[in-house]
Write a structure and sequence with these properties.
5-stranded parallel beta sheet; two-stranded antiparallel ribbon; globular; Rossmann fold; alpha/beta; about 40% helix; 7 strands
């Protein structure tokens, strides 16, 4: 049985992004997958990495619990909207506060290189847009994916990382949304 961690990074629990999260979860549960969850908006923590990497600030209980869930998981599925080519501020703060040296990677002494502490895990990014996914890719080069997939998840050893981009959401019709909910539920069932 695969151990899967679902991480919801959208700050609005009534968003379509949350509905996609629930659809994936429903499919994963139906397949018998062992699931844990992190709903970032429900955590109590300071999202500001106040001193950068110069000085460590104490991690709140919710962040310590999140770190244990990340270490436990074999497969991580991240849900978030793409805002201004990136992720919501609270979700970015969550990543900043727990994707730290000694937790998910280790800096090598007197070297620019690092050791990846999350190797052997796989990932999937499911994000929503208010523009067509093809336009985001062709016109902007998908900056949020490069930041999250390559410069965050791959940086700490999570590979491969699949991506599913859904958009445009803002002007979408009920049939479009229903179709995507079914597709994402199937992804959850298949653990893709």
């Amino acid at each position: 049985m695969k151990k899967t961690l679902l991480i919801q990074g959208h700050p609005d629990s009534e968003s379509f992004n949350f509905a996609l999260y629930e659809a994936y979860k429903k499919g994963a549960i139906a397949s018998g997958t062992d699931i844990k969850e992190i709903i970032v908006r429900d955590l109590v923590f300071n999202p500001n990495l106040q001193f950068g990497y110069r000085k460590r600030i104490e991690l709140e209980l919710d962040l310590l619990d999140s770190i244990e869930k990340i270490k436990w998981a074999e497969h991580l599925v991240l849900f978030y909207p793409v805002w201004w080519g990136s992720v919501p501020a609270l979700f970015k703060g969550f990543i900043d506060r727990i994707f730290l040296p000694g937790i998910v990677f280790e800096k090598r002494e007197n070297s620019v290189w690092w050791d990846k502490l999350l190797t052997g895990k796989t990932g999937h990014i499911i994000s929503t847009l208010d523009q067509p996914a093809w336009y985001y890719w062709l016109n902007y080069g998908r900056p949020s994916y490069h930041a999250m997939k390559r410069m965050t998840l791959n940086f700490v050893g999570i590979k491969p990382v699949r991506t599913t981009t859904i958009g445009p959401i803002r002007l979408s019709k009920e049939l479009y949304r229903t179709d995507w909910l079914k597709k994402v539920e199937k992804l959850g069932f298949e653990q893709k």
